[in-house]
Amino acid sequence: MQSLAERITDLGWHIQFWMKDDDTVKMSELLNRLACPIVFDHLGGIPLSIGIRHPAFKIMRSLLQRGKAWVKLSGVYHLSLKGPPYYSDSLSLAKAFIETAPENVIWGSDWPHPSLYSAGKPMPNDAELIELLAKQASNQDLFHKILVDNPARLYDFK
Q1: How many helices (DSSP H) and strands (DSSP E) are in the chain?
Q2: Rounded distance between C-alpha atoms, residue 52 and residue 3, angstroms
Q3: Which DSSP letter does residue 68 get?
Q4: Beta-bridge partners for 71
Q5: Amidohydrolase-related domain: from which residue to which, for each copy (predicted)?
């Protein structure tokens, strides 16, 4: 992975991880050494019941503060114990990431939700997921930054 990161850095690419919270802790030294940016998908897989108290949050926060990482606010239905329509247990963790580095947070719908479809579970309402982002972001400027400005920088939209 380190070799790959070195090769893709000059291309402006990043490595995106969808991994378990404990894997972030196990891989923290490697994550800190990677030359390219890192994107943590699905809120870094941190259990919402533990949130900012989890060691993975501290690692991710450090990477965010140094501009080495991004967090994608997506897939809350994988983590939520409260469930739809509001997934309210995701608010404090999402807000903590936004407060840490509002310029390095992006959003994803996770549509078409293939893991849920293949498991035969009900699909989330994507409009409710956008409403959740509005609560997580707390104001229109952050909402715009997360949906428009930040992805434009990460993906180098012209």
Answers
A1: 10, 4
A2: 31
A3: S
A4: 40, 105
A5: 4-157
DSSP one-letter string for 95-141: HHHHHH-GGGEEE---TT-HHHHHHTPPPP-HHHHHHHHHHHH-SHH
Q: What is the pLDDT along the chain (158 residues), one digit of tens a residue?
A: 999 999 999 999 999 999 999 999 999 999 999 999 999 999 999 999 999 999 999 999 999 999 999 999 999 988 999 988 889 999 999 999 999 999 999 999 988 888 787 777 788 999 999 999 999 999 999 999 999 999 999 999 98
Residue type, 135: K
Rg (the chain; Cα; Å): 15
| Fold classification of 2-154 (topology level) | TIM Barrel (3.20.20)
0.85 exceeded by pTM:
yes
